[in-house]
Structures are given as C-alpha cells and as structure tokens.
Fold each of these.
Amino acid sequence: MTAMADTSLTSVERKRSRPLNIGAILLGALTVICAAIWFFPVFWALSTSLKTDDEAVRRGIGLLPEAPTLDGYLYVIRNSDLPFWYLNSTITSVAVTVIAVFMAACAGYAISQLRFPGRTLLWWTILASFMVPVQALIVNHFIIMASVKLLNTHLGIILPMLITPVTVIVYKQFFDSLPREFREAAVMDGANEFQLLFRVFLPMNWGITTALAIITFIGAWNSFLWPFLAAQNEKMMTVTVGITAVQDTFGVAYARLMAGAVLAGLPVALAYIIFQRRVTQAITLSAGIKG
Amino acid sequence: MLKSRRNEMLVAAVLVAPFVFIYGWMFVYPTLQMVQLSFTNAPLIGPGKWIGLDNYKRLFGDRVFGTAVWNTTYFVLLTVIPGTAVALGIALMVSRLNGWFQSLILSAFFLPFVLPITVVYLIWDWLLNLQFGIAQYIIGPIMGKPMNVWRTIPWFMPGVAIITIWWTNGFSILLFLAGLRNIPKELYEAAALDGATRWQVFTRITWPLIWPVTVLCLTIQLILQLKIFDQVYLFSLGGRTAATMVMVQYIFEQAFQKNSGGYAATVAVALFVIVIAFSVFQYQVLRIRGAR
Amino acid sequence: MPHVELKNVTKRYGNVEVINGLSLAVEEGSFTALLGPSGCGKSTLLRMIAGLEEITQGQCFIAGTEVTDVPPAQRGAAMVFQNYALYPHLTVRQNIAFSLSIAGASREVQNKRVGEVARMLRLDELLDRRPAQLSGGQRQRVAIGRALVREPKVFLFDEPLSNLDAMLRVQMRLELAKLHQSLKTTMIYVTHDQVEAMTLADRIVVLDKGIISQVGTPLELYNKPANKFVAAFIGSPAMNFFKAEIAGRDGEAYSLNLPGGRTAKIVSRGGTVPAAASVDVGVRPEHLKLGPAGAANSHFDGKVSIVEQLGNSTLLYVDTPAGQLIVEGEGNLKIAVGDTVGLSLDPAASHLFGTDEKVI
C-alpha cells in the first residue's frame, strides 16, 4: 500500500515529501557529471592558457596550472595584431548590432502597424531571406564589395552582415501582440508615429530590444566566413578570423594559442553570462516559442 | 481622411527606407546577380561570356560536387537526429533541477554555443592534438595508438559532427526546456493520480507534448547544418580538402581559389534550391503546428 | 446648441454596415451614457467621436466646430479605455504628463498640471510608481488623470469600470459621479451595464443594431420605454411579456382578453390599434400584485415554481396561462414552491407593444 502511494506522487511532490530519493540523487549526479564533461573542453582551454608553454606540453594530466601565469596572454597581446582585431571586432559588431536592430525595429513597426503599398511584398521578402542560405551569396557579396572598393574596410565587413530577418520577424510579432489601446491612447495624447515607436512601443519592452541586440552582437562577433573573405589585410581582420590566421606565427606554443582563443571568446562569453536571461529569451523568441 | 492616409504612407516609407535599401543591395541584388552569373564563365572579378546551361551540365558530371553533396548529406545525418536526441536528454535532466543550480548547469551546456567557431576549433584541435592532446589518453587505448582525427578520412566527418553537436546543442536544449516548461503541471499530477510510472509519464505525456518542439529543432538543425562550412574548412586546413569537401566550401573553393565566379555561382544556386526546398518543408511543418 | 453632435453618420467595414445614418446631439455639461448589448455599435460611435474610427459618411461636431477630419488629439476630446492602456514603462507622473510632454510643455508646466490632477484624484502618493505596482482602482484613477490633464472639452469613457470587481465598481461609480459634478464637463460614457448607465447618466442613449432605440433620462426609459427592446433591456429582473388580444377601447385605455380567459384594462400612451389585434403586454415584476388564487380582482392564477429570497425583496417565478411571470414581492413573503397564487396587473404601469415592437 505504501509502495503504491509512493508511485502515485508526482516528481515535484516526491521531491518535497521525500528529499532523499535514491533515483533523484543518481539522476542529479549524472546531470552534474554530464555537465562537467560538456564543460571540460572550455575548462581545459582556460587551464592551458594559464600554464607556461612548457607545462602545457608536459606528459600526464595536470588539470590546474602549477603556477598560473598570464605570460601567454601578454605574449599574444604584444606579439600579434590582437589589439587591432579587438578594435575591428568591436567596431563591426557594435555597428551591426545598432544598425540591424534599429532597422529591424523601424521596419517591423511599419509592417505591423502601418498600411502602405508593398507591405505584403516586403514581408514576403523578409520571410524569403529567412529561408535562403546567406552563405550562398558570398561570391556576389565579394564582387559587390570589390566593385565599390569596400573590401578591407569596416563598412565592407558590416554591410552583408546586416541581413538579419529574424530580428524583423520578432519585432513585427511583438508589435502585433500589443493591445491596440496603447496605440489609441498615445494617438489621443497627440503622439505621431515616430513618437509612438520611440517613446511608447520600444520603451514599453526594452527587454526584447536588449535580447535581440545581445544575440545580434554575439552573432556578429562570431561570424567567420564573410569577415574572413572581406578582410584579407591582417590589420583589418576581426578577432574571430585573426586568431586562426596567425596560428603558425605562435609556433608550437599551446598556452599562447589557448590564451588567444580565450581572449577571442571572452566578450561573447561574458555577454552570455551577464545577460543569460535575455539570450534565452532571444532564442526562444526567434524560434517562435513562448518561453 | 485622405490626408492622414498619405501621411501614414510617408511615415512608412521613411521607416522602411533603410531596411529596403540594405535588403535591396545586400540580398535581392546579389541573389539576382548570382543567378545571372551562373550562366556565364566569369572569373571572380571581371566580365564573363554567356555560356547558357554549360555550368549546370558541368555540375551534374562534377565528381567533387558529388562528394560535396554526399559529405553535406552525411554531415546532416550525423548531426541532426543524434544532436536533437542528445539535446532532449540534456533538457530532461536539466528541467528536473531548480533555481541557481539549474542555471549553473544549463550554462555549462549552453556556453559553447556563444563561442566563435574559431575558438571552438582551437580548443578541440588542442584537445585532439596528436602529440600532446589530452583526448589522446582516451583515443590511444581504444584505437591502439594515438590518432590524428583530422587526417584520418573516415573519422573526419564524425569528428566534426561530434564537435558541432557540442557547439550548437545549447540552442536545441533551450527550445526543449521552454517546451517542457509549457507542459501544464496538472497533466503530471493527473497522471500521478492515475498511478503512471516514470516511463509511462514520459511516453504518454512528455513525449507527445514535446513532439512539436522536436520537429522544430530537427528542421532548424537540418537547415543550419546544410549550410555547414566553418568547422569543415578549419579542421581540413592543410589536409586533402577534396575528400572532405562540403557544399559551401566548394563555392568558396571555386570562387576564391580556382577564380571561377560563374561556376561558383552555379554551385551556390544549387545550394539555394536545396535549402529553399527544405525551408519550404519546414515552413509547412511549422504552419501545421501553428494551425493546431 | 449641442456640444457634441453627430449628423447622419454611417460606418461601414467593407460591406458590413455597423451604423446607419445616425444622428445624436449631446448637451454641454451633460453626462450621457451610450447603452446597449455588445455589438450594438456603441463603442464604434464613441471611437468615431474620438477620431479613432473613420466616419464613412456624415459629420461630427465638437463645440460647434466640425471635427470629422480632425486628428484625434486636436478634437479636444480625451478618452478613458476599458483596459486603461497605461504606458507600463512610465511612472504615474509620466503617464499623466505624456500628452503635455508630446505637446512640448515645459517641465514646470508639466509638474504643475500633474500636481493639480493628482490632488483632485488623490494620486499624490503614487506619482512615482509604475502601473504594475497599482491596484485596479488606482490604475483607473490614473487613466482618468491622463484624460483630465488635457483639459478636454469632452470626456469619452469606453466601459471604464468593466475590468474592476463588483465592490470597486460601485466605489468608482461614485467617484465618477463626483468628478462630473465638480468638473461639469461633457461626458460620454459607453457601457453595457444598465445599472451604471442609470446611476451615472443624466441622459441615456439606448442603441440597438446600430440605430438609436430611445433617448431619455433614466426614469423616462424605465417608466416609458418607447419600444419592446428598451423595455426588455432596462430593469432587472427584466420586464415580463405576454401576448393578449384587444377587446375594446375606452379613451386612452384598452381592454384586453388575457391568456387564461380573464380581461384587463390597460392605459395606453395614446397609440391606436385595430380591434381584435394581438399585442404584447409588458409589466415589470414589481407591478404585479400578489393575492389569493381565484380572487375577483386578479388577472392570472399560477403556481410558484421558484422562490428567490433576496432579503429586501422576494422574487417569485410563477407559471401562469401567460407563461412564466416574475413577480417581485416583499422581503419576508411566506410563500413556498408549489403554492398557488393570484396575480393582478397594475393598469397604469403596464405597457402595450404592437407588432412593430413600438409602444402603443
């Protein structure tokens, strides 16, 4: 009878009523082990980056560096164009984020709230660009950028990365979801369309804009193929491209290589850790799931 | 009222202008140009002659293109279903946890997703390093001797696939978690009252209700992985790329290494058609889901 | 001269006509309620006055000026919405000051005006909170404050109390009445709740399917409904209706053959009907008098099927030859289910409706 009563409890209730459930503990332990294995490569890169180059290639498994040192980091910063790459990555990613999000907010607002000729066509173009593989356009992006002499410039890197249809789609759906009374109240209060967008609709939920901005920033920072093609000049490379392009110049110096990798991933990793909730929100929104 | 209608159109024009300009220049124009280019024998930069369907005829007889299509398909098979299954498993485990502990564990699974591919490449290249890589302590005993995964052709694609799953799985995990959270608690409580076992709860409640999210993950992954390039390119650096070629890589090689823009555009059109076909399929699936 | 006037307005959505050639005049300083069931076009009418809906045909005037094509903000009308539509990202102060800020008023002017409005509505303590931190009643007051700050010529309310619970609704009703007394501004109030309309308004416009059914003071509508729709819509519990046949006429009064064989004399409002015509008789529950069954002066005998004790009154559902009639009696009535009672009509308070549903 007790056994039957036990199986009839939900997992939630079971946790509450019997905190020492063997199955739950085993599952919990398994989860922790899996998470540790999953995270290990990142941990190992961090650990290696704090070792000396000698210690990094020593036989045996030294999980933590014996004497943590920042030598690898200092070497990379001093002996590569990493400061330039950082600057390039920052300029291009911030520009892509600001322009793409601003553009998407304006376009999403117009498509959602205003009636104008070509509205349906525009919406279908956006849905189409959502389906199309932008990678297939690299050849033509390259030709266009070469013809207007924008290769090896920030603008040349930025322009093709501004195609972020998901941002427009998320904005349109957000504006669609707002009760029409907000719009009407603001209209009664004398607001015009621009004031409606920038003083009512966008500020009403900065969370969405923040989420989209962060995911756009991460995406821009991480893009590889186009910046790799557009910036042939080493001084114009982004971090993401740069750290592999100069792999050989570091020689067999794995601590330095890992220090470079850590530095390249740091801004996006930090952006995720700080804005975890927003990143989650952006991903569920872009997949069309109510989180 | 006519005045306000015209005003509305004017506002709309101002609001969509930057977007239309960028999309026209960076999406519509390149797409049309790509199709046009695919009928010429143009080099990467410079004019070419109209050669009709020659590029397309060449495409069907192209062995390397065949390899690229096969490798892309193989890669999709290796990543999409296994990756989604792993993500569901992880999401089920993580969803049992609560509070800060849950977000900590989730971060461990999700963090790789936000890293640049080159960082992922450097990390795994170091882990699997033939001489000093820590993973060789596992590979060595299994294979009998240390192995250079990236120079062993049969292991190349599975290797890239595993790393890709490690890298991109956070996305699917989040979707599954959101889906699991959307299942009403009352259903579990009702099932518990009916005396269902943990396995029955999963097969009768969780699985059917999470199925739409599963379809969503599968189709998103499918379309994402069809466009594979970065990982394959990076790990094959210095190797025999012809054997491990994937479709985007072939576009890249034809355009930027063989300097034949026209033929590269043809390959791009082929990729376009394939991805659009799958996207339309995805769109239909999502629409069916939305209609329910 | 009317303060707000609609002349022959028509509203069409595509081919669907919601309002057809309606004219309405609202006096300055009056509190007018637009009352009707959902879908009768009352909200559309209000939104046309506000300028939120285009007028397909016809004209709209506010304070003597034609505003048919004037943008909403410049009509001198302010609106309070059903769900308040407070901007969630702004504090109460910013919500109230929003229209001033849009109009480019200086910080000092904004603060001064917000201060005045806040004092009037007792919002002083809440000015730095956000809407999410307010109770339903407080939100309602902020929404009114937002309208008030614009010093409008006319206030428009779109079912402003329907999101509140019953207790608060009564309280807010009193506050609205007080507000109107102190401001004396024209107010137009849309509601489907006849109690709200009866208690607040000095004039009620009853709408039915896009046309005005009747306009009048609350008591006019209650005591002298112009048609069967108004008679049925106003009053709770609703008016009883049954069919009867005209037997003869005596000045203003008609004698009727009632179902069940007895006759009654009912005073008409001067209309004429042919003899032997069938009419609808309407009588409110409180105008049916209870007596012993079979009494000489009773018009129906019936069996009580349900008894509802409300304390201050008792509602009886009585099955009679004329169908089930609701009777309102005293609070401590000693009548049980199954009892047989006699009912008599009050001849001066009963209504006759012709086949066109208009009062006779």
Amino acid sequence: MSEHTHGSHDHHGHIELEYQPGLPINNGKVILWLFLSTEIMFFAGLIGTFIVLRYGAPAGTWPTPHDVHLKEYLGAINTFILICSSVSIVLAFEAAKANKSSQARWLMIVTFVLGCFFLGIKMYEYGQKFEHGIYPKKPHSMIYEKADLNYASAVRKRLATIVNDINAADAQQAGLAQEKATLATETETLNGVVENSSSDPQEVADAKTRLREIRQRVSEIESEESALIAGAEERAKHKEIAEPLLNHLARWTEVAAATQTDPNLRVGAIEILAYQIYPLHRDHDQVHLFLEEEAAAREAEKRELTDLVELLKTPVAEKDDVAEAQRAEQLAAAEARLAQIAGREQTLAAVNSLEHGLNDEHHWLMLPIKIPSGNMWASTYFLLTGFHAIHVIVGLIVFACILPLKLDRSRANMLENTGLYWHFVDLVWIFLFPMLYLF
Amino acid sequence: MSGQGEMTVWEKSMSFVSTYVFSRDHKIIGLQFLFSTLLWFLVGGLLALGIRWQLAWPWSNMPVIGPMLFSAEGGQISPEFYTTLFTMHATVMIFFVIIPILAGAFGNYLIPLMIGADDMAFPTLNMLSYWLMWPAFLLIGASFFTAPYGAGGGWTSYPPLSAMVEAAPGSMSAQTLWLLGITFVGFSSMMGSVNYMTTIIQMRAPGMTMFRLPMTIWGMFITAILQAFALPVLTAAGVMQLTDRMFGTGFFIPENLVVNNSVAASGGGQPLLWQHLFWFYSHPAVYIMILPAMGMVSDMIACFARKPLFGYKPMVYSISGIAGLGFIVWGHHMFVSGMNPVLGMTFMVSTMMIALPSAVKTFNWLGTIWGSQIRFTTPMLFSLSFVAMFIIGGLSGIFMAATPVDIFIHDTYFIVAHFHYVLFAGTAMAVFGAIYFWFPKMFGRMMNETLGKIHFFLTFIFLNGTFYTMHILGAVGFPRRLADPYDYPTFAHLQPLNEFMTVCAILMVASQVFFAFNFIYSIFFGPAVGRNPWRCNGLEWTAPSPPGHGNFDFQPIVYRGPYEYGSPEADEDYYPQTEAPPKEAPVVAPAH
Amino acid sequence: MTDHHDSAHDEQSHGSTGKFLTVFVGLLFLTAISFTVGNNEAIMSTPAIGWTIMMAVSCAKAMLVMLFFMHLKWEANWKYVLTIPASIMSIFLLLMLFPDIKNRTENYSNTRWLHAATPATDAHGGHSPAAEPAAAQEDATGH
C-alpha cells in the first residue's frame, strides 16, 4: 500500500527475525492453498444446493438441456478453452522459472485471451436464455411450474396487455392527427386575421403569438407522431397476431378450464396453450392426444349446434312473440358459439403450422412459459455459472495486473500462485460442465 | 509511553493516518478491533436492555428514551421493533463483538507476539480484514434504522419469510442490508483466518514447535481453521438468500407460499436447505466463539496458579477434538425442523460426544488449580468464573442435545439460558479477564485491581441473576422471540420473575461503568509497568510493554514449553520460554 | 500477493512441455468421453450409470489437473495437510445434504402439490405421489 519500501522484511524498523517455518514453501503459496480450501467449501455449498434442488425436484421434471435451450457443444467448447488456458498458464510458469520472460508474457496473453473467449461464450449463452425468457425475475418469473388456471390467466393478462397497448397507441396516434387537423384549421383562420390589413393591431399581435404557439405544438405533435407512425405498420401486424391469440387461445382456454366437465378437456386446454407457446418435447404426445380429444369434442358440439340452428331456422306454424324472441336469442347464441369454434379451429390450425413455439416465432410476445422445475433450473444454473464467471473475471483482473510486469524468475512465485488459482477455476468448471449440461 | 524508546526514526516519520488509521501493524489493528468491538458491546448490551424492558413490563412506556425512539407508539416498543431488537442484539453480539474481539482483537494482538514474529504474514491483508468490517458496521447500522422497521429475521434469518421481500413489511430493504453486512463480515473473517493460519504455521520463532505453543495460540489456530472451512458455506447461503430477495430466484422459497394474496413468485426451493447451510457455519461458529477464550483462560489460570497447565497435550487434542466434532453436529439445531429423522439420531450421538473433550478441558483446569496457591487477581477471578460458568452452560447443552428433551425445550428460554451461559458468562468473562491480563502489554500500564474486582463481583452476581433464571423459565416452556408471552395465560405468572431478571440485567450493564472507567483511566494514568508484570513465561512478556514496531528487540529463541511455572530450581519460580536450559550451550536445533 | 518470502525457489523444472501436452490430450479425451456418454441415449436411459461415469471422469480430470498442472505430484508431504481437510469437509457437507433430498417431495401436502411441477408418470423409478397431484390439479383447475 502506501509504504511499499517498508515491507515487513526489510531492516529499517527493527531487527530481522528468524523463523522456523512449518511447511517448506513460501508464505504466499501457503495462504493461497488455504484460500483455495475456503473456495472449495464455498463451491461445495453451491453444488450441494444444486444437488438438493436437482434431485429433490418432483420426479422426472428437471428440464433437459433441450428444454431450456442449452447447447451441450457450447459447454464442451468452454471446457476445451479452459483446459487450453490451464496448459498455457502452466507453461508460462515454466517459462518464468527458466527466466524466459518474453515467452512467459506471451503465454500469459494467450491465457488472458482464452479467459475472455470463455466469458464471451458464457455471455452468448446467457443472452440466449434471456431471449427465451428463462431467467429469475421479480416480482414474477415468466416460468411457471405447471399449466394450471394461474398460468392460463397469466397468459391472458399478457396478451390483453399487448392488445391494449396497441389500441392505446393507435388511439394516441389518431388523437394527435385530429389535434393537428384542428390546429391546421385554426392556423388558416389566424392567417386570415394576420393577412387582413384592416385588423386591429392588438388582434394581429395576439394572433401572431397564438400562431407561434401552434407552430411549436405542431412540431411537438410531429415528433411524437413520427415514432407512432413508424410503428403503426408493425402494430397492425402485431395486433393481427395477438388478437386471435387472446380470443381463441387464452380466453378459450380459461373458459374451457372453468366450464368443461370432462377433466381431460379442462386440463388439456391449458396444456395445449402451454405447448403452443413453448413446446416441450416431453409433452408432445400427451398434447396431441389432448388436441385430438378436443377436436372430437368440438366436432360433436358443432354437429349439435348446426342441428340446433337448422331446427331454430325452420319456420314454426303458430306465431308467438315470446317464443319467437327466445328462439332468436338461442339462435344468436348458437351462431356465436359456432363462430367461436370456427375461430378456435382457425387459430389452432395457424399456430400448429408454425415451426416453433409462439414465443420463438414472435419474440415480442414474451408470454409466460411452462417449464416444470424451470425456476429452480434457472436459479441454480445462473448461480453456479455466475459465481464461476465471477471467479474467471477475478482471474482476468489478476492477469491484467501482472501482464505489465517482467515475468522473470523473481516473479515465478507470483505466477505460480496465479496459476494455482486459475487451475482451481478450471477444476470447478470440470465439475460444473457435466452437472449442468449433461445430467 | 514506555514504548516510545523503541520507536525508530522511520516510524516517527510515518503520518498519523498510516500509523493509527490504515496501519498494517498487527498491534494497531488489534487495538482497532478492540475499541470497535467494545463500542459495539455497549450497543449490543443496550439492545438487550430493550428486550428485557419489554419482557418485564410489556407495553409500558420506556422512561426517557422511549418517547425519543418510538414517538409514534407513545414511547412503547412495537411488536415489530421487538423483533428487530432481538435480531440486532444477536447479530451485533455474535458478528461484531464476540467473534471480532476474540479473533480480531486478541488474535491480532497476541498471535505474532506469542509465537515470536514481528508481524502477521500478510500485514496488508490484515489491515483489509479490519477495514472490511466497516462496510459491515455501516450496513447493519443502516439495516437497524431502515423504515419502518429494521431487519427482523432473527440472527438465524430463517426462510421462507426472510427470503421474500413481500413477506414482512419491515423486512423490505432491512433484511437485504443485513445479509450484505453479514457477507462483509464473512470476507473479513476469511481474510483474517487464512492469514492467522499462515502466520502460525510459517512464522514461529526458532524452537517454538507446535507443542510449545501457548493454549491461546492453539485456540486461535483451531478457530482459524473452523472459520476457513465453515464461513464460505454461510457466505454461499447468504448470497443465495440475497438473490432470492433481489433477483427472484427461489432457492429457499417453497411452492404454494401465499404472500400478500398471491402465490410466491417462483417455487420449488427448500427452506430446510438454508438451515443446513446456515448451521454448517453457525454451529462451528459457537466454537469459534469459545475456543480462543478457552485458550486464554488456560494461560491465565496456569500463570496465577503458578503451576504448569495440567495435561497440556490432552488440552491440545481436546481443543482439536471439539473443533472436529463441532463440524458434524450442526443438525442438533434442527431436531424439530422436519429434517430426516435418521439425521436427527446421528446428530444427537455426535453432539453427546462433544461432552468428552469439553470435560477433559474442564478437569484439566481443575487439575491445574488443584493444590496451588491461587493468586486472586482480577484476571484470575474472571478465569475461574469462566470455568464455573462453562460447566453450567455445558451441562445445559447436554439437555438440548437429546432429541426428546429438545422437542420440549426447543425455542424456549432454556436455550437462551444455555447460550448466554456459554457466551456471556463464558466467553465475555474470559474476554474481560484477558483485557485485564494483557492490558499492561498493550498500553504499558496496569488497570486498577480494586475497581477490577468490584467489576468482577458485580458482573458475576448480576449475570447469574439474569441468566440462571432463564433456565427456570425455559423449563416451564416460556417461549423466546415473543414480544408478549403473557398473552398466553399459562405464562402470565412468570412476569415477576422476568422483572427480577430485568433489574439484574440493568444492574449488570450498569456495573460495566467500573470497567469502562478503569479501562479509559488506566490507558492514560495507570501505573507504568515493565515487560513482565505478572511474571509469566510466554514470549509476549519478553517484549517491551507496549512493544514497538517489529515487536522484539532481540531474536527470540524458544527452549521450553509455555507453562514452566512453580519450578523449585528456577530463580524466580518460573522459566521464560526463552531461557536456555541451565547446563549446556543451546541444544535446540529448530526442526525442519 | 504481497510480501512473499524470498525462500529460494529451488524447485527443479518438473514437467516438461511434452508432459503437459500429454496431460492436455488426456483431458480432452476424458472430456470427449463425458460428452459422448451424456449424449448417448442408451446409457442415459438409466441415468444413474451415465451420472456415475461422468462424475468418475470429472474426478479423473480433476486429479490430472491437480497432480500435473498444480504440481502436486512433485510436492512434499505438505500437500496432504493443505488439501485433504477441505476435500473431506466438502464431501461431508454434500453427504449430509443427501438424506433430505429423498425426504422432500414425499412429504408434500396436497395443497403444496397444487403449485409444484407435476411429476412425470413414466419417470425413472416410478413415483408414488404421481396419482395425487393429478387429483390435486383437478382441484386447482376447478376452483
């Protein structure tokens, strides 16, 4: 720190004391190994948490790498990078011991760059998770443990928000356009006043002030409007997608879940919704059964309704106003229901023809997703890789500090200790890789 | 001061800041720890009085300070504030008083002096470990004053309520600050412990073999090992609870937790996991809080009994045994937590086993004073009371170790009595003794013996009045952590007993005035002393009082064990560790 | 990395570049084994076998890194003093956490199953409360 020249081992302040060291290594190495012991315990705590949550999760629910868009090969590449960096840092230490300082520096630069690569890949992976909405979040995560009514209503709320936002933006745009039109008319009138030579000078002055105000307001409106106008097309497109989803996926599902008596239709509706949004491979067969069942039920209902409609449309002999009104009402209800079913069929067909889930096809939807045990997966994944990444960053900072030094024999101890730390970081990854990517 | 003579030219040229504030000298850092922790001791004691006030006279206005603190409630303690009070009392006493005063103050001051080193192995790291306590001080302080209420999770901070921001209105940012504070304490202790271990392993004076180390150093060494292995686990757990609160992870938040009319954000976590990780640290931590005290007491007892410590090696082995067993007993805090019953059985057995090494230590202390001519100095009085009180605290521990009994007395005042007997009547008394004992070394002056004895007797009487009564309450089932237990008619008749305890507690805190006055007065006006006022044989007593920079003005070479007292052959009835064997020239060849 | 003692680092050069490269190739080979096992459906159909193999491979890799890269192969006996306690303690901590894993979902109440993930019925080793959650979900969707 401030008194580098007065290290504890110089002769200025006091006599140099002799010691009887217990271990035949330098103090730096002793304290580093002790520090690594504390690190081992730290990661034991984290890994223990992972094991408890991973194996304590309800049986068979832990997400597979595919479920959470985890690419095994990226993990393998990162393993490869860390192993390479371990080799390069150990070779740097050997070079420093042999007093080849420039070679040691080059190898340290290689290590540094490899560490950066590791972090780069890690960032890319995190980005992918975030893109799919897989991350812990306050106050409510996007990940739902199961497809229940809670989940269905969350999806409906999200879709309703999207549609409402679009409508609000459209309304704002229309309002602005209208205000501009009114201001334009007013401008014309005022211009008339100004140009009219017979006007009262006071009136002219007022008109000019008002004109200035109007000009300012118009420019304000235009700047506000430009963004809205630019987004109008996209909004229209989004609305076209979101509105049927809201009506025929989300609302249909909620109604089905609340009214259907057949448990398969009740549960199935929500499972179908979850699958459309974020398809999990493991749900594929089940959901297709649900879909078939629902289709059968729909067909039956449709036939029933069509018959009813026909029956209602056949003219009746005796005229009775009350009965007539009732029949009209029934007819309208039946036709509305038929329209609903048609909409449902159309939307389902459209969504089923998509290659990916809704969230992947339209990233802006950001609908809640169902991943059983997904919250715990995200928590442990980000915790373990996050703390490992923090250790990598600390290592890189240390590298950056020692790179400018001359890495000759006198600094071999320092390089060795840095290397020990870096190897430890590698060791942790050796265990994290199979646990997070392959289990 | 008498140490002035040893000061050298460059030392005088150092600025005030680098000498006394950002000092890298282990003695200054030790004193910084000592002063800070004594101040926090006062804070913690006053918090305890707040708790006692509420228990003696629930919902009555606090005189004088009540209207200032809680004007909204008209000078009463609110239930939420009561929760904050006991949380803060425990946190302050454990993390800011007992652990730092033992490891930080005495560890720092004594380790290099007693092993014959000029400083710690890594002085800068040592300085950092003190200054990292300050963010912790500030964070916990901020947590206390957070509106509307401070952290109220108890020092154990059990989830799920502590892990959920929405759970308790007072826990919003307070609990988060609390967790951050604990994390800083963790970093500080971790730095300290690896440094102590390196120093003790690598920087002993020639001839100072491991089995010539004084018990104080053994206590510090084992403590450092415990801290190094246990603390990282608490840090990991604390960080997870922080992310639960701040980023919406769910490590400790189970499914179906309905808080404020909505289901918990993310489910699937396990509250029990926190208890495992927490107690994996916090049980060894109770040994962290007593092993150094045991070591210091051993040194004081041997010195004032003028006899060699009875069974030095068994003492060392039993201290290591306590530490080793201490790691495998944490489950006895969780007998009623829903933990797998198989584990409960295992932990019960291992807990019972701790009684063995503890008994070895107790009998060895008794063996040391057996048949000796005890010099009843203030430090000795405190040490003897430590031994006596430790027996009470230790025996009540065995009650709790047995699962069937624990199920009845869990979370009653019995456990409160137990850990106050061990921590206050045990460790804090040992710390008082150690302050009286090493004060001459630290400041080159003696503390007043008469005031010291008054301090001892008053503290001793009132602490038993306060804490012994808690056993009775506990046996009746009086619950801890309740703001108003008298709400249950079963406990209503216990209020007079609580009033008695509160009066004792107030008097106990008041008797510390004798100590405070004595301490401050003696720093400036106490009678100056030479190097070895107590005629002890440890290495620290061969250094000047107070030692200058670099500690020793000669090369210490150790020829003997630390407890060669009462030798009829010695000129002065004791052999300092540095005294060469009488006959031949130096025999000791430092073993490599 | 402050005041390191000027203890003469008399260590002779233990590992030659060739030796480190051999270890490097070994590590890559072991990583490839893990990767293959993890992606092999036949092995992972009984996951316990796959997990055991992968953990064994990881331990082997860790040993290689420690022995050669961290030079423990060539160090004196102090290596045991500084490495074994932490290893034992960490393994012990993990072991003591295991008993509660099994205990966990078995003790779930019906209301807790309402919000927990539904166990897979065809899960490996079959799970008894699988029937319960279906019933619980009935209630969940019904209310």
